[in-house]
Amino acid sequence: MTRRTARELASAVRSRQRTATAVVEETLAAIAARNGAINAFTAVAKERALAAAAAVDAAVGAGRDPGPLAGVPFAVKNLYDVAGLPTIAGSHIDRDRAPAAEDAALARRLTAAGAVLVGALNMDEYAFGFSTENTHHGPTRNPHDPARIAGGSSGGSAAAVAAGLVPLTLGSDTNGSIRVPAALCGVFGLRPTIGRLSRAGMRLFASSLDVGGPLARTAEDLALAYDAMQGPDPADPACASKPPEPTLPLLVRGVEGLRIAVAAGYYASQGAPEAFAAVERVASALGASERVELPSPGAARGAAMIVTSVEGAELHFQDLVARAQDLDPKTRARFLAGALAPGVWYAHAQRVRRWYCREMAKTFANVDVVLAPATPYPGFPIGQAWIEIAGQRLPAAGHLGVFTQPLSFAGLPTVAAPVADCGPLPLGVQIIAAPWREDLVLRTAAAAEALGAVASPTPV
Amino acid sequence: MADPFDPAHYVPEAAAAVGLTIAPADLGDVTQAFAVLARVAAQLMAIPLPEETIAAAVFIPDDGAGR
After folding, report:
1. A348 and B43: CB-CB below 8 Å?
2. A235 — contact with chain B (CB < 8 Å)?
3. Alpha helices (runs of H) in A364-458, residue ranges in sequence order
4. Of A155, A352, A410, B14, which is most buried with the most CB atoms under 10 A?
C-alpha cells in the first residue's frame, strides 16, 4: 500500500474499495516501523488522523462527496501550523511555544479536499539550510542511502515521500528548499509562483521569497494537491487575488506545441558531470535541443543571499540578542552575519530583483519551458562540510542551491522531477516556466514521466 | 579597488552597535559568514541601476480583511 499514489488511494476510498481508516492505520503503522531509519517525522498526530479518517468514511457512507483527496494521508514540514502542536520550525528555542490554534491555510485546504494530516516533518532550523542536518532533532537520512543527506530545508518532507511513508507532503521553498530535497530523495516537488499559494499559518524565513508547495511521487499527485490549495487568502498579504486555475485537466495535453530549451552557461557548469547528463537525457526524451542563456544568475543568487540573510536575521533578531547560543550551530553564524548587513545592500538587492525579473521575462518571450539541473551533485555523506567541483573547494551544503536560488529569485514556478536511471543516488531536473504558468511545468513533468525520462525510484 | 570592508574589524563593531553579543567561539564563523555576504554585496552594488528601477517588494496597504 505504501507506494500507492495519492490519486490511487483517493480513488480507492471514493469507490469504497478501501476505507480511509484502513489507509491511515496502515500509514501510522508504516511510520512507527520505518521512520526511525530516516528521521523524517518529528511529530505524529495519531488521534486526530484517525478521527479525520473516520469523518471521511462517514461522508462516503452517507453518499456525500469526500473530496478529490479522500483519505490521502499527508504530512507537513514543521514550520506549518498544526492545531495542537507547537510550530517549532526545526528549532530548540520554540519547543515550548504555545500549540497552534488551527492548521495552516494550505493544510486546511488539503483537509477540506479529504486529505488526512498525520504529522509534522523535520527541517533545517528556521529553514536556513539545504541539508536537514538538524543538530536539535537529528539529521534526516536519505532513504536511498541512510548515510547521506536528504537535502533541505524540507528534508523530512522529501524523505517521508521517498520512503513511502506518505504519498504527499508539504514543504516550503525560499531558495530551493523544496526542489533540492526532492531531487536528492528522488521525488517530485513543486515550487509555485511566489504569491500563488497562501502562507498563512506558516512560519516564514524570508518573506520576499518564501512559498509553500507539495512533494509527491508523481506529477499527477503534485497537480492534484496544488489544485486543491489554490485561491486567494486575505490572511497572507502577498497571496495574489487570482481565482484557482486547475492544472490537473491540462496534464493530458503533454508538451505538444511547447518550446522547450535547456539552460546553458552557468547552469551547465559548477556541478558534477552526472547532473548535466541527467538533464540532457530528459531534454532528449522531450525533443528539446535548443539552448538558452538565462540572465545574470550569479547576481540573482547573490541578491537572494542578501535578501534571505537580512530578512531571516530580522525575524529572529530578539533571539539573536537574547539567546543566540540556543540556535543550531549550523545556522547561528549565518543568522548573526545577516543581522549586521548594511541596509543599502538589502535595498539594492531588492531593486536588482526588479531589474532581473524584467530580464528574465525576455527569455520567456521566446521559450515556454526551460530545463536545468536541480542540484550540482547527489546527496553527500552526512557531516561532509566541503566538496570539490571542477578544482574548486566549495561548501557542500551551501553549493546545493547554486541552480535553484537564481530561479526562485525571479519567483518562477518550477517542478523538480527525479531523472530516471541515475543509479543508486537520485538527481533531479528543474522544469521552469514564466510566472503563473504552473500548468506548463506540471504538463512537462507529466509528459516526461509518461516517456519514462523522469520517475520516482523506489529505495532498495 | 580595495575591499571597503575588513570583516574582522567590522563584525565586532557592528554587533556592538546593534546590541548583539557574539561569543568568542563564534566570532570566526560569523566573520567568515559576513565576509561571504560582503563579497557578494560588493559585486551586487557594482550593478548600476537607474533610479526608476523600483524595488520588487510591493507594499499593499491592508484593507482590514487581512491581519
Report:
1. no
2. yes
3. 405-409, 438-450
4. A155
